[in-house]
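Discrete fold record:
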Amino acid sequence: MFLSSAGALWAQSGSTDFRGMAVHYFSQNDYEKAAIYYLKLWEETKKTGDFEKYYTCLLELKMYKEAEKLIKKELKKKNVQLTTYLLYGDLFAHQDNDSKAMQQYELAVRNINSYHSFSQISQLANGLQIRSKIDLAINAYQKAQKVSSNPVSYSIRIGELYGVQGKTELMIREFLLMLETNVGYRNQVQNALSRSIDFKVNLKETELLRIELLRLTQKHPGKTIYNEMLIWLFEQKGDFKSAYVQVKAQDRKLRANGKRVFEFGEVCSNNESYDLALEAFQYVIDLGKENKYYRTANYRSLNTLKKKITNSSSYSKEDLLNLESKYNFTLDEVGRAPHSINTMMELGHLQGFYLQKFSSAIAILEETITLAARVPKVQGKCKLLLADVLLISGEIWDASLYYSQVDKAFKEDVLSHEAKFKNAKIFYYTANFALALSQLDVLKSSTQKLIANDAMELSLLITDNLALDTTANTMRMYAEADLLISQHRYEEAIAKFDSINSTLPYHSLNDEILMKKYEIDFRKQNYDEAAARLTEIVTKYGEDILADNALFLLGEMHQNIFKDKIRAADYYKNLFLNYTGSMFGIEAKKRYRKLTENMPGASEFKEIE
């Protein structure tokens, strides 16, 4: 059948790549032509893949006698591939002889022995799964596991197949069986469980895992691994309160002297579960001053409390003053020394950025610079923070001096890039736009993506608006107002922006001014006004470069401050649908998915994707 057309095809293809032709015809379901090329390839390469494709062509063409003759010849060879039995089974399946097909599939499993490699077993099981013979695929792994030297070598694969069948309890037990053999499999088991169960959505499956872990905890009271897995599960669910109960019990049981509770406090703090983090750190502090984690727990407790207050949408001046008092009390107790530099920096940041106690902030940060003399990088960070406070306090050129010192001392380090960018902003604030642009041009190629993006944005702001303003007066006023914002002189900044708006009501900076007014309102916790500024940007300047920023910020505000998930999701959806080139697009999709996964019509997202 093929010989009659083969010559014509060879003539047509000439020196053409046979594989390319084979793939092309196979993808077009032109099995007659594809078979000619795959036969030629198989004769030349003896590759299993080429044989399988040729054999598949024969089956599709209903050339069953030729296919059977071919497969029987393959089965007589030494070290026959297990998947060859699957191909023989396919011959019967194509002829609707399911019982004979199943005989061949089962024969493949029966022929498994200890000499077969992991990849050979996996190929067979995958082949069975593709043919919807999942029970047989599980049997294949179980047979391989019995003849293997490792009793859990295929447990992950077996468990995942149970998951495909919806047999969650069997899946969980198969995964956890690995821990009974060797606790070193913990990471593999946790990864397998995470892939198979969404702990925040699949509540039934999550509860089954919790029950099984509790059962194993009671069955093996001397093994801590199941307690650790239970803690891990609660953390994945975001149920830190339940996890804390287990952590405290385990810490006491292991006589860990607060180590496990301290580590758990870190996890809570990083996940913004501030109250529980503070409770955990206080537990360690209450163990006494002789405890090795006492001092660090004090530091982390203060740091967490600071994050809790400053990340809140409604903190008061009294909250800040109470926090300052706690910092001073702790530093008086532990001493102002190299081990407390981070805490001193945090106090300086609190005093300079939030309380406007500039002289106190400058004094303590100058002290940290002296204490960090033997650790240059830490000293560099102290200088950057001091410069930031000096800038806020109005000592702009003193700030520039410190930025220059850090830039010079840490060439090509992230500290240098950060310092150079902040110095470029000083030149921008003082209307030295040419010098600012020269610095920003260097930073556009920074390996630090955020700095490079910020440099690009500021550079575009300057160049785009200078091109429209030959005198640079408007740009100078805008930069001066921007500096006032940095110095927390918000009313003066608003007045200067309003002056630009009244003089030039249609200037290209108007959307930028709205964004700056949003920043001021947000810092002052005037959240309704802040949201209104962003809405105006989207409404009036939807085609300009800040529209996607405004949508993303509106989504964040409604998600985190107004606690309106539906509106937040709408803003994120608007962004990734209508601003496809936005750098916020991917993150907006993630947040939209997370916000809508439990809402009615959550499948809409899949349609959108």
Summary: Confidence is low (pLDDT under 50) at residues 605-609. The longest helix spans residues 317-334. The chain is about 75% helix and 0% strand. Residues 505-608 form a domain with the Serine Threonine Protein Phosphatase 5, Tetratricopeptide repeat fold (CATH 1.25.40.10).
